[in-house]
């Protein structure tokens, strides 16, 4: 079992907020890894009663994507601490991929041909995730890393609200959550032009123009309010299958650690 106590080296802090701490560190002589710690304020813990922790959801979504051969960071382990079946804190460890975020690369400017190719790669990546039954829930350009090897190496990261379903979610309403947040929300207008969004959507639809038109209509008509309602429902766990009786014991366990090498059937 890999534990964070294996390292005596100082961590490089990337983010520190009330709810989240993210750092890069080296564990027991292994490659550099990324550690994320999610804290739940005591006043809000009741909202997590009997629900999976953020680290658990991220770990299982990443594991499902990684096991399916999709380009994403490799999950290593997660840990969660509960109080009376409510999540007090959780943390997830994954591989660290050096590079630049897609948002930063787009903001810096790209030749039109390269920009179109990048949008096509982005659409294909999201399609592969959805075909594998993975709802990202944090699909944004800032959560795509372009590895230092170049634009060909596009890796998905940051899955704190990720969900894994048994079947493909392509052509399902829940897929709109990712498509909208990736390229069609108001804040994405500064990242993508209309032609960028069309290239992205055509790639996602594998060239199916009818499907592309249908999705375009739904996404351009989608409001921020509707998106917020949909994401809130998914974040809260409404509509997600209740764990089987055999899994309830882990929810009541005060402290639980799981590594990628252990069986982690948590598919919804």
Describe this structure in words.
The chain is an alpha+beta fold and 268 residues long. It folds into two domains: 93 residues, 2-Layer Sandwich (Phosphorylase Kinase, domain 1), CATH 3.30.200; 136 residues, Transferase(Phosphotransferase), domain 1 (Orthogonal Bundle). It contains eight helices and eleven strands. The chain has a six-stranded antiparallel β-sheet with strand order 1-2-3-5-4-11. A three-stranded antiparallel β-sheet has the order 6-8-9. Strand 8 and strand 9 form a beta hairpin. It is globular and about 50 Å long.
Q: Into how many domains do the coordinates divide?
A: 2
Give the C-alpha Rg: 19 Å
- Helix/strand-derived category reads alpha+beta
Name of the top-level CATH class of the largest domain: Mainly Alpha
CATH architecture of the largest domain: Orthogonal Bundle
How much of the polypeptide forms β-strand, as a percent range?
Answer: 15-25%
> Low-confidence spans: pLDDT under 50, at least 5 residues?
238-246, 263-268
How would the global form be characterised? Answer: globular
Q: Helix and strand succession?
A: EEEHEEEHHEEEEHHHHHE
CATH superfamily of the largest domain: Transferase(Phosphotransferase) domain 1
Name its key features.
about 270 residues; globular; 2 domains; Phosphorylase Kinase, domain 1; 6-stranded antiparallel β-sheet; Transferase(Phosphotransferase), domain 1; 3-stranded antiparallel β-sheet
Secondary structure layout:
Layout (H helix, E strand, L loop, with lengths): L11 E5 L3 E7 L5 E8 L14 H14 L7 E9 L2 E10 L3 E3 H7 L3 H20 L2 E2 L8 E4 L6 E3 L6 E2 L10 H10 L9 H11 L4 H13 L2 H13 L8 H8 L2 E5 L9
Antiparallel strand pairs: 1-2, 2-3, 3-5, 4-5, 4-11, 6-8, 7-10, 8-9
Helix pairs in contact: 3-5, 4-6, 5-6
């Amino acid at each position: 079992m890999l534990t964070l106590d294996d390292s005596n080296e100082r961590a490089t802090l990337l983010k520190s907020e009330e709810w989240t701490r993210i750092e890069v560190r080296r564990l027991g002589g292994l490659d550099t890894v990324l550690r994320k710690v999610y804290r739940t304020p005591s006043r809000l813990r009741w909202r997590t009663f009997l629900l999976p922790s953020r680290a658990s959801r991220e770990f299982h979504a990443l594991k499902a994507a990684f096991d399916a051969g999709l380009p994403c960071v490799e999950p290593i382990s997660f840990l969660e601490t509960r109080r009376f079946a409510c999540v007090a804190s959780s943390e997830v460890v994954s591989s660290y991929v050096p590079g630049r975020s897609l948002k930063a690369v787009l903001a810096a400017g790209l030749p039109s041909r390269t920009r179109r190719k990048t949008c096509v790669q982005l659409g294909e990546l999201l399609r592969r995730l959805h075909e594998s039954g993975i709802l990202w829930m944090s699909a944004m350009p800032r959560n795509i890393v372009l590895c230092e090897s170049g634009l060909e190496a596009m890796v998905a990261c940051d899955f704190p609200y990720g969900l894994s379903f048994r079947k493909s979610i392509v052509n399902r309403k829940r897929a709109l959550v990712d498509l909208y947040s990736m390229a069609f929300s108001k804040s994405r207008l500064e990242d993508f032009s209309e032609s960028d969004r069309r290239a992205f959507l055509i790639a996602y639809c594998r060239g199916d123009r009818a499907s592309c038109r249908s999705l375009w209509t739904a996404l351009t008509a989608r409001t921020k309010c509707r998106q917020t309602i949909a994401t809130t429902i998914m974040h809260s766990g409404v509509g997600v299958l209740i764990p089987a009786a055999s899994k309830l014991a882990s929810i009541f366990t005060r402290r639980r650690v799981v590594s990628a090498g252990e069986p982690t059937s948590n598919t919804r």
